[in-house]
Amino acid sequence: MVKELLKGNVAFAEAALRYGLEAYFGYPITPQSEALEHLSGRMLEEGRVFLQAESELGAINMVYGAACSGVRVMTSTSGPGFSLMEEGLSYIAGSEIPVVVVNMMRGGPGLGNIQPSQGDYFLMTKTAGHGDFRPIVLAPASVQEIIDMMGLAFDLAEKYRTLVLIAGDGAIGQMMESAELPPMQPVRKERPAWAVTGAQDRDMNLITSLYLNPDRLEEVNWRLQAKLAVIRENEVRCKEYETADADLLLVAYGTVGRICLSVMREARAQGLKVGLLRPQTLWPFPEKRLLELAGQVRGMLVVEMSAGQMLEDVERAVRGKTPVQFYGRLGGIVPLVDEVAAALRKLDEETSQEK
Amino acid sequence: MKHEEIIFSGFGGQGALFAGQLLAYAGMAEGRQVSWIPSYGPEMRGGTANCTVIVSDDEIGAPIIKNPTSAVVLNLPSMEKYEPLVKPGGVLVVNTSLVEVKSTRADLRVIYVPASDIAGELGNPRMANLVMLGALIAATDIVSLETVGQELGVHLSERQRKWLEPNKAALAKGAELARL
Amino acid sequence: MNTQTNIPEDMELVYGFPEALTEVSTHYCPGCTHGVVHRLVAEVIDELGIRGTTIGVAPVGCAVLAYNYFNVDFVEAAHGRAPAMATGLKRVNPDKVVFTYQGDGDLAAIGTAEIIHAATRGELITTVFINNAIYGMTGGQMAPTTLPGMITTSTPTGRDPILAGYPVKMTELLAQIAGSAYITRQMAADVPSILKAKRAIKRAFLTQMHGLGFACVEVLSTCPTNWNMDPWKAMEWVKETLAPAYPLGDYKMTDEVKALEVR
What is the pLDDT, as a whole number, of residue A5? Predict the structure, then answer.
């Protein structure tokens, strides 16, 4: 395959299609509408299903319906739309069917703005709907990575019959980079045994999240938690840069992760032993690895486009074993290399006095 | 290791975003890592449009930067915004057809090109972006002019195909002026 | 039918238990017509021979457990979203028969957008809409279809349109929409009206199977418990009060739908 210059939103949409996406339902919202626009033509060209819904509520429930038939289906949105979709996400989680949703985060709360943000971290990793569940949350930092993660997202969703979210941001969606798309895959012909496809020559299938008997619902919840425990054990992903000899660690994901890569390189050039850990899964979170690194470094700097959401997970992971500082920009502002470098210098100064 | 960060900026419709994309395509064609990121949103409608292009030999970190190694400014608001931000030793390409002020920076290589006028003489003032790109490339050697011309042939939309040769002429003219 | 066994050769089966129903007792109150309409839908599914190709979408409301009574593939939707879910199901299973079964709160309040837009798209699904002018499951609160003056647990002095708005007539609304092919209002209040409702439901399924457009059958139904009436009085009330406020009849029937043979 050849590399192409691809815009993030178009890239993940085309990648999803090539990974065998059978149906897409969505509602336009900046900054991810290019994905919907791209699929409006391509899905029909490939004889697959595309539908622009009347709202994000409509879209997620169409996704829910199609997913009940065991097909590869997805939607994509941004913060305000994601809030509306939470109802459906909870039902999807409760009925344990595989669904993939991309959220290209933008500034909030409320209507906020359309610039890049990471303010939906809590929303996606901890409260993606009412009830007691966790979706797998993947965090791409480049156009190539969001392409690759579409395939991973479908595989994980189907392997565990679970909800998989992709936590992008406006910058990933709008950026063009050279990247390689996967080869074209046809849609899968066979449907899983649990799917509703008409009860021809078999007992009826039922997909529901309703269990009026609390004993039964507790049982369902324990099974769900057991599954999540397996995911927590096996599906943690993160990328490390120069951590082997690091005595200061940057922790950041997505667009901010790659900004921190530039910060790290500059700091290394100035002789500072800085490493970077970039979580590729926000849930499950790379907490074990962070705890190990907490025993190695003299301090960590968490950088986010939020007031400090992933920060809480880092603090929880390191259990007070190393100082954790934070630098964040809010409201759709992307932190620049200089600003982060200054925060890193502050961490360096404060922690070198301690030692 | 070569690593260039260029901001293209102008009024919406002046083609700053396309000039940036063309540079990214050319960088990619020459086997470099590239990223292109626009400012997006309501300000694109008639306001200033800008994009940041990074062409590098290494994996690209921050796609959004404050201090570019070069800036291509197509109008006065862009000049006011980006002239102070270019890194010392960098290149500033100014469209003198619309920007009458001179740069006060002694630590930059500043190239003045009456790009809109030249483009008008070549048949369409809207090719000012290509005159500016030609000047940038001649001044920086980020990629070769030939690669840009070649990519222009690939990425010019069907509707604008008739402007291929004039666009190439605009590129060449910009380059020629920068070399003077 | 499940009860076909042991029929003497000189006799024929004229009435039995539909194959599309499960043989369990329902949770519905005495005198509630949900059970009746379930049976009508099941008989239609049997008669059309589509038990193995039908997918039902259950609502939130009294019929939330409808899937316990139908012996066909079923999914449980969020409140009001059944038409969206049915859309997803139908679009990826164009060869299957997809129906939603919804109450008045589900379809006419929280799910208004979903039903209207399913109709505008001419979605090839069938909707059975139970209108009993009250919220049954949550304990008798005002429904969007509650009549002015009607006492409910959330309109204790009677529904005052100045405060609580007017009843919404979904059938009239849906009939205006280009994508709808068959929109009708029936009632389940006595034997003739129930038999008529069944024919309407059958026509609505056939409308889908022939790809003619969106079809919805509204059935005026009873809620003796929350109306504080005995079952007999409730049936009378449907005829004497509800039906005059929600006039029965076919509000939209395209020529193609009219031409369908419904036996």
Answer: 96
Q: What is the pLDDT of residue C6?
A: 76
For range C233-252, the mean pLDDT: 98
pLDDT tens-digit readout, B85-94: 999 999 999 9
Query: C114 to chain A: nearest residue by CA?
Result: A58
What stretch of H or E contains C88? helix C82-92
- Rounded Cα distance between C69 and B133, Å, is 71
Point out the residues of chain A with pLDDT beneath 70: 1, 353-355
Residues B45-55 have a mean pLDDT of: 83
Structure tokens at A178: 């050279």
**pLDDT of amino acid B47:** 64
Q: Are residues A134 and A281 in contact, defined by beta-carbon separation less than 8 angstroms?
A: no
- Whether B40 sits inside 8 A of A336 (CB atoms) is no
CATH number of the domain that B119 lies in?
Answer: 3.40.920.10
Percent of chain B with pLDDT over 70: 96
Query: Can you tell me the distance from the alpha carbon of C50 to that of C45, in angstroms, rounded to the nearest whole number?
Result: 5
Domain definitions of chain A by residue range:
3-198+207-234, 239-354
Shortest alpha-carbon distance between residue B136 and chain A (Å): 21
The answer, yes or no, to whether B and C have at least 3 beta-carbon pairs within 8 Å is no
Contact B41/A114, CB-based, under 8 Å? yes
Q: Which residues from A are below 8 Å from C97, CB to CB?
A: 198
> What class has domain C34-259?
alpha beta
Same-fold call for A3-198+207-234 versus A239-354:
yes
Distance from CA of A334 to the nearest CA of B (A): 8
Kindly list the residues from chain C whose CB atom is less than 8 angstroms away from the CB atom of residue A54. 113-114, 116-117
Range of the domain at B84: 3-179
N-to-C CA span, chain B = 28
Domain A239-354: CATH class, spelled out = alpha beta
pTM of the model: 0.94
End-to-end CA distance of chain A: 51
With an 8 Å Cβ cutoff, is B33 touching chain A? yes
Provide the residue ranges of all domains of chain C, joining segments of one domain with +.
34-259
Q: Which CATH class name applies to A3-198+207-234?
A: alpha beta
pLDDT score at C5: 64
Q: Which two tokens stand for residue A335?
A: 């932190």
As given in the structure block, the two tokens for residue C124 are: 């090839």
Which residues numbered 108-147 in C keep a CB inside 8 Å of some CB on A?
113-114, 116-117, 121
CB contact under 8 A, C64 and A210: yes
Q: Where are the beta strands (DSSP E) in chain C?
A: 54-58, 73-76, 97-103, 126-131, 134-135, 141-142, 180-187, 214-220, 249-253
Distance CA B78, CA B67 (A): 14
Q: Which residue of C has its CA nearest to A208?
A: C76
Cα–Cα separations (whole angstroms), residue B155 to B119, B164, C23: 19, 10, 67
How far apart CA C90 and CA C208 sit, in angstroms, is 10
pLDDT in tens, B101-117: 999 999 999 999 999 99
Query: What was the ipTM of the complex prediction?
Result: 0.94
How many angstroms from the chain centroid is the CA of residue C7?
33
Residue B42 has pLDDT above 60, yes or no: no
Nearest-Cα distance to chain A for C60, in Å, is: 10
Taking CB atoms and an 8 Å limit, are C117 and A198 in contact across chains?
Answer: no
C236 vs A: CB within 8 A = no
pLDDT-derived band at C1, boundaries 50, 70, 90: very low
Q: Quick one: pLDDT at residue B44?
A: 45
Answer whether C163 touches A (CB < 8 Å).
no
pLDDT given for residue B162 in this prediction: 87
**Beta carbons of A259 and B66 less than 8 Å apart:** no
Please say whether the beta carbons of A311 and A302 come within 8 A: yes
B41-69 core/surface letters (b: 16 or more CB in 10 A; e: else): beeeeeebbbbbbbbbeeebbbbbbebbb
